[in-house]
């Protein structure tokens, strides 16, 4: 089970609901796993624009219809 008993941001919940591990996303996007963990667990944290773009582009390539604003406000 993903996200069992953890506080999750909307980004973290999205990963959990779609069975995407932080390790897989890190490898595919080139974003450090610790950075992904931080933004997946704390809704007050946002990635840099560079890392956010890498994450969103990786998810889009995997077939998800997501946008930066779906998870983080500018």
Structure description:
- Helix 1 packs across helix 3 (33-41) and helix 2 (22-29) packs across helix 4.
- The chain is globular and about 30 Å long.
- Helix content is 57%, strand content 0%.
- The mean pLDDT is 91.
- With 74 residues, the chain is mostly helical.
- The chain has 5 helices and no strands.
- It has helices spanning 10-17, 22-29, 33-41, 49-61, 68-71.
Short description:
The chain is mainly α and 74 residues long. Helix content is 57%, strand content 0%.
Produce the secondary structure layout.
Elements: H1 10-17, H2 22-29, H3 33-41, H4 49-61, H5 68-71
Helix pairs in contact: 1-3, 2-4
Rg estimate, integer Å: 11 Å
Helix run count: 5
Termini gap: 31 Å
Largest sheet: none
CATH architecture assignment: Orthogonal Bundle
- The ordered H/E elements are HHHHH
Strand content: under 5%
Considering DSSP H and I runs of 4 or more, what fraction of the residues is helical? Answer: 55-70%
Number of structural domains = 1
CATH topology: 434 Repressor (Amino-terminal Domain)
């Amino acid at each position: 089970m993903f996200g069992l008993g953890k506080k999750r941001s909307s980004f973290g919940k999205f990963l959990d609901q779609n069975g995407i591990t932080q390790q897989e996303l890190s490898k595919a996007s080139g974003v450090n796993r610790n950075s992904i963990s931080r933004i997946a667990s704390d809704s007050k944290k946002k990635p840099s624009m560079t890392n956010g773009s890498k994450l969103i582009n990786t998810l889009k390539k995997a077939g998800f219809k997501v946008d930066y604003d779906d998870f983080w406000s500018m």
